[in-house]
Amino acid sequence: MGDTLLEIQNLHARAGDAQILNGIDLTIRPGEVHAIMGPNGSGKSTLAGVLSGRPGYTVTDGSVRFEEKNLLELEAEERAREGIFLAFQYPVEIPGVTNNYFLKASVNAIREHRGEESLDAIDFLSMAKEKMAIVEMPKDLMARSVNEGFSGGEKKRNEVLQMLLLEPKLAILDETDSGLDIDALRVVASGVNALRDENRSMLVITHYQRLLDYIVPDYVHVLAEGRIQRSGGKELAHELEAKGYGWLGLDEGASA
Amino acid sequence: MAQSTNSEVEALAGREYEHGFITDVEEERIPKGLSEDTVRLISAKKDEPEWLLEWRLKAYRRFLQMLAEDNEPTWANVDYPPIDYQDMYYYAAPKARDELDSLDEVDPEIRATYDKLGIPIAEQERLAGVKIAVDAVFDSVSVATTYKEELNKQGIIFGSFSDAVKEHPELVRKYLGSVVPYSDNFFTALNSAVFSDGSFAYIPKGVRCPMELSTYFRINANETGQFERTLIIAEDSSYVSYLEGCTAPMRDENQLHAAVVELVALDDAEIKYSTVQNWYPGDKDGKGGIYNFVTKRGACRGKRSKISWTQVETGSAITWKYPSCILQGDDSVGEFYSVALTNNKQQADTGTKMIHIGKNTTSTIISKGISAGRGQQSYRGLVRIGPKAHGARNYSQCDSLLLGDECGAHTFPYLEVKNANSTVEHEATTSKISEDQLFYCMQRGLSEEDAISMIVNGFCKEVLRELPMEFAVEAQNLLGVSLEGAVG
Ligand SMILES: Nc1ncnc2c1ncn2[C@@H]1O[C@H](COP(=O)(O)OP(=O)(O)O)[C@@H](O)[C@H]1O
Ligand SMILES: [Mg+2]
Questions:
Q1: In whole numbers, what is the pLDDT of chain A averaged over residues?
Q2: Residue A254 falls within a domain, yes or no?
Q3: 3-class state of residue A253 by DSSP
Q4: Nearest residue on chain B to A75, judged by CA atoms?
Q5: What pTM does this model have?
Q6: ipTM (interface pTM)
Q7: Distance separating the N- and C-terminal Cα atoms of chain B
Q8: Structural domain span for residue A81
Q9: For chain B, which terminus, N or C, has the lower number of CB atoms within 10 Å?
Q10: Using CB atoms, which residue from B441, B442, B445 is nearest to A113?
Q11: CA of B277 to the centre of ligand 1 (A)
Q12: Does A53 reside within a domain?
């Protein structure tokens, strides 16, 4: 199926010793934006972690294909190089490593994998400048250590900046909206929208419908108890917002 | 801070100790073992004046005494089988070293060796406008020094210790042993008896040395110890930046390197001393490698003088070294910036001593220890504030980073404060390289090795930025290479 970017079938996974995902089925085609909503603890980050190869998770059943590859066989960095990008719910600090240096190393690692020439400092900077403008990122953040002392909003902008630089095939955004005020949310969303095109797909994880006013999804899925309980179009998000998670017969964490 | 490019970081993958080759050169040795004859023979080879032979012999007797009293230091947190001081060569030198009239006369094999190490014995600019004077010490002797003449025009003396003894005996006699007496410890007594060469630098009053001075130490011969001395004197208001590098072949045996370094800074003088130590560390199981037992000390004799030690210690099976500052002059400044890395079965016990004697003296200690594999390391530091050191200040920061569960990091800070009007601050942290950091980097396409190298370099940043630019890149690469196989 050349027309499928990501195909998740019957995915079961543990986080540590706890069984969290209990049979996820999801197909994403190029250009589609899928939103995953669900109460806290429903397994949204677990799904993102399993897809991106984060240590600590064990797949107990099911399969994941990414393009023609068995995704679960690839190392985390191979998945990244193949075009899977995760915007972290909690971006990590790396003391002593400048953001500029980190992003350049990352861009060049991925360019090399694609058979492209690596960028020198000057070319990288001009590319970065253009993308920084999109997410309204202050210049001095490039000279500071990665995420160290960044505000919550700055960290999330930095995630989106990286996504813009790396131009992934599949971007997974894990609660990129959480903790953002409306202005920051708008900026982050415009960064994401800048990257939307017919070949790029997105998996937007969120707890709130709010983000989906800015990043309008093609499909919305509701995750609870480790399964997709319901799928629909963008109107499903509004329905959820109006009625709460309890509406689906899930009392747990209703509309927090 | 200088940062290596990504491709340089990438080039690390798959490399191991890359300086482990042996140069095939005919060497002249004196018979194995240590005796008064050994000491006399070394001195005679160098045509030394009587006073120096006498000094060596006193040191030798002191060493014998210490040996008899079992005075080899045991307080360091390192572990090694007894060293048989009779079972090694104390002098090995490439043959036919007549006086060189020009650098072109250096033995091609030796020239090739240094080329391979990335240290050309030639007077050529490294980067546009950057010159570095090199003294090349090969086993027991200095084989060449570059830019001697050019430096000499400004009155700067730079070259081998042996030449300095011949050409400037008054300076050597005045300062030799004045900072580190031969009787200081077991290894200084040994070194003072049998040292065979080393580097000497003298910067006259008011002169700012126009280029980096450097010495590259190479151990090549088997079963041979290297015992060299470095002596640097900075007269009033002078400045010098000096760098040393060290490499050795991969061998199954352990080889001893016991050096002594003495620095003297007079009024308003500044000496910046940087080390990138990459002696052969031994193999994964701890077989072979250099025992690096070194005494380094600087005397800030003058008012407002400054001595700054920066070291990146990645090599050696065992490192035992405490570059120190004696802050005699009022308002003098001592600094110690250190990165020590132990992987596999390497052991390091390193740190510094800051001895505050003069008023308003200040010292800064920044120590970064990285342990991987089954590596063990200790930071051992003494800060002593003497009774007359009014207004003295010290700041110490010791950070340890652990990679894996089988390595260890230990911190032994000693404090002796005899003046109430002084300030001493000490901070220490121990952290593990976090899985989250690694995953974050790998999710951005970096390999695990590159991720570790990047995180470790970030951890060491405050120290690496003290290195001269060119060497910072070298040091960063070295940290990556030295960590190979540390995680996985
Ligand atoms: N390493 C782990 N060991 C055990 N339980 C875990 C681990 N990681 C996450 N969990 C649990 O898995 C559940 C799902 O977590 P998560 O995927 O982060 O949910 P969400 O992102 O939807 O809020 C939670 O109950 C959480 O406590
Ligand atoms: Mg989550």
A1: 92
A2: no
A3: coil
A4: B442
A5: 0.86
A6: 0.95
A7: 29
A8: 6-248
A9: C
A10: B445
A11: 46
A12: yes
